[in-house]
Amino acid sequence: METLTEAPKKEWFRINKNVEYSTSFKFFRENQIYIIKSGTRHKFCSRLESKVFLEKICPYFTGDYPESDIFVMTMKIHNEILAGKHGKGKFVD
């Protein structure tokens, strides 16, 4: 008998019939999001749909965010997706 803690983890969050984001942050970061940089402007975009998740202007003199900041912003976007803030959806296998 399967208990709640033994239940398999859902692998994907389906926004619509053609778009499913991974529940794995590592997979999401490596395959489902990319960053466009133009001067000091950074756009965090979906590789799966025509969508800009976040657009920020870098406050640093170099115009580049440190990797730690990129990591935090990407994780925030991933959490927002899984919370349904970028489109209603459901967890699927």
Map the helices and strands.
Blueprint: E1 12-16, E2 19-22, H1 25-31, E3 33-38, E4 41-46, E5 52-57, H2 67-82, E6 90-92
Antiparallel strand pairs: 1-2, 1-6, 3-4, 4-5
Based on Cα principal axes, name the global outline.
elongated
Uncertain residue segments: 1-7
Helix content: 10-25%
> Roughly what is the average pLDDT, rounded to an integer?
90
Write down the secondary-structure element order: EEHEEEHE
State the helix count: 2
How does the major sheet shape up?
3 strands, antiparallel
How many strands in all? 6
Strand content: 25-35%
Structural class: alpha+beta
Instruction: Give the CA-CA distance, first to last residue.
Output: 20 Å
Q: Over all CA atoms, what is the radius of gyration? A: 15 Å
Number of domain modules: 1
Biggest β-sheet: strands ordered side by side in the sheet: 2-1-6
Explain this structure to me?
A three-stranded antiparallel β-sheet has the order 2-1-6. A three-stranded antiparallel β-sheet has the order 3-4-5. The chain is α+β, with helices and mostly antiparallel strands and 93 residues long. The N terminus is likely disordered. The chain is built from two helices and six strands, in the order E-E-H-E-E-E-H-E. It has one domain. 25% of the residues lie in helices and 32% in strands.
